[in-house]
Design a protein that fits this description.
Blueprint (H helix, E strand, L loop, with lengths): L19 H36 L7 H7 L2 H28 L6 H17 L6 H11 L4 H29 L10 H20 L3
Helix pairs in contact: 3-4, 3-6, 4-5, 5-6, 6-7
């Protein structure tokens, strides 16, 4: 007897149920982040202008006057350079994570950069940026040990390059101090400059 061909019943594909509650929660979270960012940005700009006006007792121009006298192309170039620095900084994270046999999206690397800069600027001695970046990378499926190595390597490579460039520029432009007539002022600037350079080598921030 030939075996009967039993047709296996086709499984009906169950359409994915969209969790409306989760979408609403995500939308509210995004709106809150944007609102928080705008508040922080607005408050920061207000305080900068307010403090500069309080300190400018008729002798030093406040920030509003400086911006009014600033060249528009120069201002655009400055803003563009800031964005380029951020984009390159994010690229460093992506390259270092890939070198450690892990993967992250460039968007994640960009968020890691912004997160580090935010916590650097609200914590004493800028010590909060690196731990925040490690936690965020780990949250995005990068092992804790790898995340720590990536952030540490990027930080120290950056500090070494900055100190080398800083020392080189200080040596090259030493002659510019000749424009100052007061010898005591020149000596003070030299001492403070090299002390600051040495301190930055010992305690990088």
């Amino acid at each position: 007897m030939e075996p009967e061909n039993k047709e296996t019943p086709k499984q009906e594909q169950v359409p994915e149920i969209i969790d409306l509650q989760a979408l609403k929660k995500k939308k509210r979270k995004t709106i809150f982040k944007i609102f928080f960012f705008i508040i922080i940005l607005g408050l920061s700009i207000f305080l900068i202008f307010k403090i500069s006006k309080d300190f400018s007792a008729g002798q030093i121009s406040d920030i509003s006057k400086i911006f009014a006298q600033m060249s528009v192309p120069f201002l655009i170039l400055t803003i563009a350079l800031v964005f380029i620095v951020i984009l390159v900084d994010a690229l460093k994270f992506k390259i270092l994570v890939r070198a450690s046999k892990n993967k992250i999206k460039y968007k994640t690397a960009l968020k890691t950069t912004f997160l580090g800069k935010f916590y650097d600027n609200i914590t004493p001695f800028a010590f909060g940026g690196q731990p925040a970046q490690i936690l965020y990378l780990n949250k995005n499926k990068v092992p804790a040990g790898t995340a720590t190595s990536v952030v540490g390597a990027k930080f120290f490579l950056q500090m070494i390059s900055m100190n080398l460039i800083g020392g080189l520029l200080m040596g090259i432009n030493a002659g510019a101090l000749g424009l100052i007539k007061d010898g005591a002022t020149i000596t003070t600037i030299k001492i403070l400059g090299w002390v600051g350079f040495g301190a930055n080598l010992i305690i990088p921030t």
